[in-house]
């Protein structure tokens, strides 16, 4: 029996940056640099890493929202694209498949149309995918708002009349209302106060069990994914550097970068986070000229060999993968 719902193979996406410190030389940023993983049906799979490591680019590539340079993605037995074979799903088939692949965004305010009422926001997908007609759309939208903790009395309100946590509940109801199989949650709690974060994670956990959902959960904060995810992939500058079950990753982190993430105290506010850590131009330049491990210049365990040879992701123990010369 094949329980895999999503298969990502050798995904690559680069951006050519115009601004440059090196005269006229172009800077190529390998935002996603050969990423492969699978997600099982009903699993919650986390992508974790600092700002700019390629989490959102990976998610947008999987959802077929951007064109990639290389790789293959299969969802629920269908090929969304296979760059080697120059194969891509038709826009019509992709549009149908969007019902099964939903997304919850980081910023619940920016992602909700300010001119639409809560029930209209949730009802849009219901109408598009013909899941109800006429007044049935309103009733169904109300139902999903209530499931997500928004009283139906409030269904006529606009996004600005809700709190941040409530807005995120509307965003979740919008995704849930089309009865998807798979949800990408891209930093769904990063913009919320810590007290509200736990409520939203609890809601997602309840929905996951109630509707047998599969999640790709993106976060910069390992503490958030700890309570939600079955397996965790740690990303660094476009690569997965460690992949393990949540239990293994927390009890036995192996990659020096994972250890660093676990030791660091995350800054909770996203605006502060952006200031503290984003991919710097010097790192992009380093990445372009670097033939070895991308973590080399930050790694306290680095040896000479790490400078010249890229480490591949290898299985160290059952289900525990790591890309580090120290462990291979
Ligand atoms: N359209 C674009 N044009 C140029 N560079 C881009 C574009 N989109 C993303 N990037 C760059 O690609 C890298 C990966 O970006 P991405 O948004 O995937 O990171 P992320 O891990 O989601 O970060 P964050 O935690 O801040 O959301 C970053 O350096 C980013 O600046
Ligand atoms: Mg992102």
TrEMBL record:
Domain ABC transporter, chain residue ranges per copy: 6-262
Record keyword Transport present: yes
Cross-referenced InterPro entries: AAA+_ATPase, ABC_transp_ATP-bind, ABC_transporter-like_ATP-bd, ABC_transporter-like_CS, Oligopep_ABC_C, P-loop_NTPase
Biological process (GO), any one: peptide transport
Membrane spanning residue stretches: none
GO molecular function: ATP binding; ATP hydrolysis activity
PROSITE patterns cross-referenced by the UniProt entry: ABC_TRANSPORTER_1, ABC_TRANSPORTER_2
The keyword Transport appears for this protein: yes
Keywords: ATP-binding, Nucleotide-binding, Transport
Homology family: Belongs to the ABC transporter superfamily.
Protein name per its UniProtKB record: Oligopeptide transport ATP-binding protein OppF
Biological source species: Clostridium chromiireducens
Taxonomic path: Bacteria, Bacillati, Bacillota, Clostridia, Eubacteriales
């Amino acid at each position: 029996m094949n329980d895999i719902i999503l298969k990502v193979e050798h995904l690559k996406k680069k951006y050519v940056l115009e601004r440059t410190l090196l005269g006229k030389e172009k800077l190529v940023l390998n935002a996603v640099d050969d990423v492969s993983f699978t997600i099982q049906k009903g699993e919650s799979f986390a992508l974790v890493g600092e700002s700019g490591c390629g989490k959102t680019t990976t998610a947008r590539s999987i959802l077929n929202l951007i064109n990639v340079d290389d790789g293959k993605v299969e969802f629920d037995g269908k090929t969304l694209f296979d760059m080697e074979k120059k194969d891509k799903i038709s826009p019509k088939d992709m549009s149908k498949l969007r019902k099964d692949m939903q997304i919850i965004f980081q910023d619940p305010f920016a992602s909700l149309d300010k001119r639409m009422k809560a029930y209209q926001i949730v009802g849009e997908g219901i109408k598009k995918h013909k899941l109800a007609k006429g007044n049935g759309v309103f009733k169904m939208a109300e139902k999903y708002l209530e499931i997500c903790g928004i009283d139906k009395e409030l269904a006529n309100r606009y996004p600005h009349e809700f709190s941040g946590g409530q807005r995120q509940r509307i965003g979740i109801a919008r995704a849930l209302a089309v009865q998807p199989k798979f949800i990408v949650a891209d930093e769904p709690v990063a913009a919320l106060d810590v007290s509200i974060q736990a409520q939203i994670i609890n809601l997602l956990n309840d929905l996951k069990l109630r509707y047998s959902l599969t999640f790709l959960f993106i976060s910069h904060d390992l503490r958030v994914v700890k309570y939600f995810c079955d397996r965790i992939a740690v990303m660094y500058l476009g690569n997965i550097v460690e992949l393990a079950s949540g239990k293994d990753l927390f009890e036995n982190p192996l990659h020096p970068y994972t250890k660093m993430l676990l030791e660091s105290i995350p800054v909770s506010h996203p605006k502060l986070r952006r200031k503290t850590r984003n991919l710097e131009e010097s790192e992009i330049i380093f990445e372009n000229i670097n033939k070895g491990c991308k973590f080399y210049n930050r790694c306290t365990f680095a040896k000479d060999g790490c400078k010249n040879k890229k480490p591949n992701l290898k299985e160290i123990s059952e289900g525990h993968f790591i890309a580090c010369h120290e462990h291979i």
